[in-house]
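Sharing a chain and its predicted structure for anyone who wants a worked example. Both blocks are below, sequence first, tokens second.
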Amino acid sequence: MEDETRPYSPTNTEDGADRSSVGGIGGGSGIVRLKQTLGLHHGVAIIVGGIIGSGIFVSPKGVLQEVGSVNGSLIIWALCGVISLVGALCYAELGTCIVKSGADYAYISEAFGKLPGFLYLWVALVIIIPTGNAITALTFSYYILQPIFPTCDPPDIAIRLFAALAIVLLTFINCWNVNWATRVQSVFTFTKVFALAIVIIIGFVQLGKGEIEHIQNGFENTKQNAGAFALAFYSGLFSYSGWNYLNFVTEEIKDPYKNLPRAIWISIPLVTVIYVFANFAYFTVLSPQDLLASNAVAVTFANRMLGVMAWSMPLFVAASTFGGLNCAIFTSARLAFVGAREGLLPVCVSLINYRYFTPIPALIVGCVLSLVMLISKDIYVLINYTSFVESIFMGVSVAGLLYMRWKRPEMERPIRVNLILPIIFMLLISFLVVFPLFTNAAECLIGLVMILTGIPVYVIMVAWKGKPRSFKNFIKRLTISSQKLLLSVEEEADERKEN
């Protein structure tokens, strides 16, 4: 798809204006490319903001429901944080030896070739990311509208329209300025951490008052079967998903060899501490039965402890989801951008706006797909399949790390984790993939079908070189139109390789 559509150069446009003074990474280097603007604090904001969504506020009951006891659930939350850290360290090695944005796509393609990489790209861009964005936007919309409808649920049409507005607004911000997008991320990450800090402080105040009724017999009712603990781990690890978000924007990190691993070491232990203490705080106010019965745990907690300020908690939940949505839009656009740059998507998706240095076409594609998902009434059904599919590709990525250790021992690895870490992580992921086959076989089968639908698309759109001239001309016109309409040009390939 990439061979027929190279009409404009990055330095000269149709109007004859010389863009050689437009700097990318190097200021006046003459290269239009994504800029390295993300420092350590941006990296921390992306990881923390990507992990902490609405779950810890709304429904942290999955772990408790499966394990049965307060202390058992707290231990599972802590262990899930450790497991996530192990996985993130494996991705730190991958992200510093394959310095490409796109995370799993980049690593799978490098280790196993274009087809496996395309299958991840296909499922992620068409199903996983738009579904996640739509659900996050709907959650944001529900909680931002809830104070306006205190005695009933907001109307469905209002929720969906407000969700669409949030997606479009954040897409515009990401198109206009990377710094704006990162500021939004930093502000809303701080907001969600601040909200959880309030919950934790109240918990310690309650502890100081001797409110230990629900935690003094912490292991009471602990379930004894392995299946229950497996499901508890599955639920806990799902709440930590997002720890690999920074790997989607590796090319935009300043000094990624230092800042990527540092951001991981700061963020995931921080989130683990927050998750464990927030759950502990909930139990100083709510009984296990109260927590399991609540549809929005943090809101129930606030209603009991914040008095006249209880209205603020739904707004904090909305802020948390808004920041999570911004993070997903920011990172997923880089996945589409890199896939198109590698020739697996139409070249117009790989264009960069030469004024703002943002991948506007990729952002617009993500926005449209998310809005399409927003229309569907069955969107929540899809989320049941996506976690299984994500687990498969996460395992394939780490398998790629092991494979390249074996086949490419000479590869430069600024970070080289102990081999036991990827092996442990592979065993855990294998368990997470195999176990659902026995408990939810139908959902797993649908997830596998989603992956396999990408094969004919790959054969037709990528592998087949003898496409009709009319198709090639259509792609060429689409590319030229995108360049003119969005003031966008291609990144320069040679310079990219050097970097």
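Comments welcome. The radius of gyration is 23 Å.
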